[in-house]
């Protein structure tokens, strides 16, 4: 095998196929077509004179040679990513790009306004926002900053807890405004709950513990969807207070539910913590979040 013939593009193809197990998955990861992945893999195997993947109905499995090349690809990617972070760490200017990952709920309820103000105060900094309930890797530079609710932030990241997200039961104001609040009991009402795909295990557990599943015939797979559903009828739902309190069509029906309190963190990779634009962003946005969440106590 002539190692000088292997390019970084080739290693990316091998890595993406090994990661996803399919040509279509590799194509989506790399932003190229299924046919292009197939062609480049075939060319590489012909060039090296080895089979890199075993084909089957279930997908592509690395051969011994493929495993070897995949390990090289991972090491090269780690080296490239490390250099990028170290070079970014030398940037002391308040300019450049910050890529932020957060959830749709946090963006809609807390961050959109704060981000717009930050852009006005720091016009030379470009914000790229990845809105997803999936965790993006800060180690692979999929994002520079993560703003997420979590009880266990990854040990590989640095940051600070900026507050606690509190949650309460909310219902449509028109229906509930003349009824007793707080509710004297949780059962007996129609409930809107989280769909399992939402992944809100804490809320699922709380509802089950309080015997609410038998009253829940309406489930939604996003918190913003649950908020919209709560506006539309007489069913009630647990929502973050930062969403419910700012919604004029809803009213709060209980005190905050202590067992559903969730810390909110703003996190970055250790190699980026001294980058001036990253430091400024985390301080400004973090302090703004702290003030909003403290006002809800």
Topology (elements, then pairings):
Layout: H1 8-20, H2 23-30, H3 34-48, E1 53-56, E2 59-62, H4 64-88, E3 96-102, H5 104-121, E4 125-131, E5 145-149, E6 158-165, E7 167-172, H6 173-176, E8 191-194, H7 201-209, E9 216-220, H8 223-231, E10 237-240, H9 241-244, E11 250-252, E12 262-268, H10 276-294
Parallel strand pairs: 3-4, 3-5, 8-9
Antiparallel strand pairs: 1-2, 5-12, 6-12, 7-10, 7-11
Jot down its keywords.
alpha/beta, Arc Repressor Mutant, subunit A, D-Maltodextrin-Binding Protein, domain 2, three-stranded antiparallel beta sheet, globular
Describe the 3D structure.
With 297 residues, the chain is α/β, with parallel strands linked by helices. The protein has three domains: 3-88, Arc Repressor Mutant, subunit A (Orthogonal Bundle); 96-165 and 262-294, Periplasmic binding protein-like II (D-Maltodextrin-Binding Protein, domain 2, 3-Layer(aba) Sandwich), CATH 3.40.190.10; 167-260, D-Maltodextrin-Binding Protein, domain 2 (3-Layer(aba) Sandwich). Helices cover 42% and strands 22% of the residues. The protein contains ten helices and twelve strands. The protein has helices at residues 8-20, 23-30, 34-48, 64-88, 104-121, 173-176, 201-209, 223-231, 241-244, 276-294, and strands at residues 53-56, 59-62, 96-102, 125-131, 145-149, 158-165, 167-172, 191-194, 216-220, 237-240, 250-252, 262-268. The strands form four sheets. The chain has a five-stranded mixed beta sheet, with helices on one face. Strand 1 (53-56) and strand 2 form a beta hairpin. Helix 1 crosses helix 2. The protein is globular. The N and C termini lie far apart (65 Å). The mean pLDDT is 87.
């Amino acid at each position: 095998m002539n190692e000088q013939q292997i390019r970084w593009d080739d290693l990316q193809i091998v890595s993406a196929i090994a990661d996803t197990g399919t040509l279509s998955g590799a194509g989506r990861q790399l932003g190229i077509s299924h046919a292009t992945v197939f062609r480049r893999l075939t060319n590489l195997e012909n060039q090296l004179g080895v089979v890199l993947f075993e084909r089957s109905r279930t997908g592509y499995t690395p051969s011994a040679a493929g495993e070897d090349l995949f390990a090289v690809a991972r090491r090269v990617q780690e080296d490239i990513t490390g250099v990028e972070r170290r070079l970014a760490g030398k940037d002391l200017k308040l300019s450049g790009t910050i890529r932020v990952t957060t959830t749709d709920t946090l963006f809609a309820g807390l961050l959109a306004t704060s981000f717009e103000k930050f852009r006005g105060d720091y016009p030379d900094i470009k914000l790229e926002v990845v809105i997803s309930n999936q965790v993006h890797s800060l180690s692979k530079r999929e994002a520079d900053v993560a703003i997420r609710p979590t009880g266990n932030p990854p040990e590989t990241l640095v940051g600070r807890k900026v507050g606690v997200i509190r949650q309460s039961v909310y219902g449509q104001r028109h229906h509930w405004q003349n009824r007793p609040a707080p509710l004297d009991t949780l059962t007996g009402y129609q409930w809107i709950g989280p769909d399992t795909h939402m992944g809100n295990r804490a809320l699922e557990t709380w509802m089950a513990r309080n015997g609410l599943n038998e009253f829940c015939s309406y489930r939604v797979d996003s918190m913003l969807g649950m908020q919209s559903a709560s506006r539309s009828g007489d069913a009630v739902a647990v929502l973050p207070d930062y969403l419910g309190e700012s919604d004029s069509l809803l009213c709060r029906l209980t005190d905050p539910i202590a067992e559903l309190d969730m810390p909110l963190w703003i996190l970055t990779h250790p190699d980026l913590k001294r980058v001036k634009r990253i430091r400024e962003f985390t301080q400004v946005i973090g302090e703004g979040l702290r003030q909003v969440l403290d006002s809800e106590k």
